[in-house]
């Protein structure tokens, strides 16, 4: 506990400093609260609206978790498929690069048009955002197996399937971990943009709603909630993937 | 293990149209240790990889054959300077890598016997990072023995070890690889003087045989004839550099 505190204190100090500056700007400039509410007011609004915020945050969290889970699974499956077949790689890799050049966010209106205002359009947004970094970095890892291992396997008359599962996949886990970590950063953004385009629930929807009614304090409260959720998600994914990265486990 | 065959490498190699080594003949006597010495980049590892049936940068023209007429590459066990232990697998899993990669069941008794012979019984469940350099090479040696191949190729296998551990590993390797046809690539004249039934110095022009001592291997590190042979080899290598 104390060690965790020692590790976290620079972040805590920085946060406190930022809050102090924020409060000072609001107090000194006398900027109206619908332009920039003071942190104390945001905290108060957050507390009085905690159940509403929690309900919307839950929706966003479900979208992100589903999107992250499905996107990661499909990404992993794609990487393995492509890693085992040169032919599939030649065929699919250009398509992958092309779809990545296309900003997924630009697809949000179309996805909403096709799938409606419900959960599925946001989940699909997240899936699309998560899919590429996971597939690309895992595939990269699978194609960069240390050649010495493959030489050794060859002199052992190894079967390709066994080489894949016992050497290539474990050797590529650090790459997969970095893909997952990257994906975890982008997934909440995907969900929120999906909600902006069209939704009746979720933190993104709440932010738009509050903004439209000049409830800037509520908008900030929702934004901070999203920020905290994203940080927790990042830390969670980091912790879950730690074993993939460390070789001395 | 079947009777170990002799191996003959006969041919020349080029890299990008330029000569790597001129036509040469390397004979590995059946059941004996052949040491291949030479400067960096003359193609020692290339020869070894050719025998093992591995890809090389060089284009080889010639023939690699076994004295009994059988295939070569499938009967070859290979051990490089890098021990190539899988960091995520235990010592036991690393030793049993061959059967695991072929999808065969691991012969538990043989595995336990090998671990005992290389003195790693207590470390069976450890990961490689928890082992010393010498212990890691023992795992690699046990993994090679698990394959039970009659021809063994060692590419500077002990060069990363300290002098004492290296000498111990040489003794252990000679004991455990008895009866097999062994080719050791080394840049250590002392190693060649201790281990070679036949010692070949390689240059781009070809091979020069240096007569090793008569004594059985592993020869004493402090034996007069070992030291004399080592000095002889050293002179050879320095003459090449000049
Ligand atoms: N991966 C590679 N790419 C390009 N050239 C290589 C590669 N590996 C080896 N070579 C070339 O092949 C020659 C022989 O290499 P090698 O057989 O490893 O030499 P040795 O083991 O005697 O030091 C070297 O001079 C080097 O230039
Ligand atoms: Mg070499």
TrEMBL record, chain A:
Pfam families: BPD_transp_1. Residues 53-241 form the ABC transmembrane type-1 domain. It comes from the Bacteria. The keyword Transport applies. Keywords: Cell membrane, Membrane, Transmembrane, Transmembrane helix, Transport. One of its GO terms (cellular component) is plasma membrane. It is found in: Cell membrane. PROSITE patterns: ABC_TM1. It is a multi-pass membrane protein. SUPFAM superfamilies: MetI-like. The chain crosses the membrane at residues 64-83, 95-117, 123-143, 218-237. The keyword Transmembrane helix applies. InterPro entries: MetI-like, MetI-like_sf. Belongs to the binding-protein-dependent transport system permease family. This is Hydroxymethylpyrimidine ABC transporter, transmembrane component.
Automatic annotation (TrEMBL), chain B:
PANTHER family: ALIPHATIC SULFONATES IMPORT ATP-BINDING PROTEIN SSUB 2, TAURINE IMPORT ATP-BINDING PROTEIN-RELATED. Pfam families: ABC_tran. GO terms for molecular function: ATP binding; ATP hydrolysis activity. Residues 2-229 form the ABC transporter domain. Coiled coil: none annotated. Keywords: ATP-binding, Nucleotide-binding, Transport. The keyword ATP-binding applies. Belongs to the ABC transporter superfamily. The keyword ATP-binding applies. This is Hydroxymethylpyrimidine ABC transporter, ATPase component. InterPro entries: AAA+_ATPase, ABC_transporter-like_ATP-bd, ABC_transporter-like_CS, ABC_transporter_ATP-bind, P-loop_NTPase.
């Amino acid at each position: 506990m104390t060690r965790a505190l020692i590790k976290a204190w620079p972040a805590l100090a920085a946060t406190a400093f930022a809050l102090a500056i924020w409060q000072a700007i609001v107090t000194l400039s006398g900027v109206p609260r619908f332009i920039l509410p003071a942190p104390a007011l945001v905290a108060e609004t957050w507390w009085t609206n905690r159940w509403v915020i929690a309900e919307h945050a839950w929706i966003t969290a479900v979208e992100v978790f589903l999107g992250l889970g499905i996107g990661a699974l499909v990404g992993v499956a794609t990487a393995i498929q492509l890693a085992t077949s040169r032919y599939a790689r030649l065929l699919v890799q250009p398509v992958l690069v092309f779809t990545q050049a296309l900003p997924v966010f630009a697809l949000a209106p179309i996805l909403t048009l096709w799938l409606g205002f419900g959960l599925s359009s946001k989940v699909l947004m997240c899936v699309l955002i998560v899919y590429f970094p996971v597939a690309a970095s895992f595939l990269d890892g699978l194609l960069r197996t240390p050649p010495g291992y493959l030489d050794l396997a060859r002199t052992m008359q190894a079967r390709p399937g066994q080489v894949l599962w016992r050497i290539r996949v474990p050797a590529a886990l650090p790459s997969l971990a970095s893909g997952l970590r990257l994906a975890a950063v982008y997934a909440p953004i995907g969900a929120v943009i999906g909600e902006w385009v069209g939704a009746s629930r979720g933190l993104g929807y709440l932010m738009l709603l509050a903004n439209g009614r000049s409830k800037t304090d509520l908008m900030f409260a929702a934004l901070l909630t999203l920020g905290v959720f994203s940080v927790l998600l990042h830390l969670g994914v980091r912790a879950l993937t730690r074993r993939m990265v460390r070789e001395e486990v | 293990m079947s009777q170990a065959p002799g191996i003959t490498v006969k041919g020349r190699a080029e890299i990008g149209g330029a000569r790597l080594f001129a036509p040469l003949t390397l004979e590995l006597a059946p059941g004996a240790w052949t040491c291949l010495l030479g400067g960096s980049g003359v193609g020692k590892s290339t020869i070894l990889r050719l025998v093992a049936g591995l890809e090389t940068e060089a284009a080889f023209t010639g023939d690699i054959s076994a004295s009994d007429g059988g295939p070569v590459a499938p009967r070859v066990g290979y051990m490089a300077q890098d021990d190539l232990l899988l960091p995520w697998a235990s010592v036991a899993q690393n030793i049993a890598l061959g059967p695991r990669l072929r999808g065969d069941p691991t012969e538990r008794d043989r595995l336990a016997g090998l671990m005992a012979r290389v003195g790693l019984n207590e470390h069976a469940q450890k990961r490689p990072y928890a082992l010393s350099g010498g212990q890691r090479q023992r795992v690699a040696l046990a993994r090679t023995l698990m394959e039970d191949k009659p021809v063994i190729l060692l590419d500077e296998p002990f060069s990363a070890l300290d002098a004492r551990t290296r000498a111990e590993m040489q003794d252990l390797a000679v004991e455990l690889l008895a009866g097999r046809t062994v080719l050791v690539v080394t840049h250590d004249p002392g190693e060649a003087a201790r281990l070679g039934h036949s010692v070949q110095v390689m240059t781009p022009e070809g091979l020069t045989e240096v007569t090793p001592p008569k004594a059985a291997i592993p020869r004493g590190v402090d034996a007069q004839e070992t030291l004399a042979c080592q000095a002889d080899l050293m002179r050879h290598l320095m003459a090449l550099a000049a």
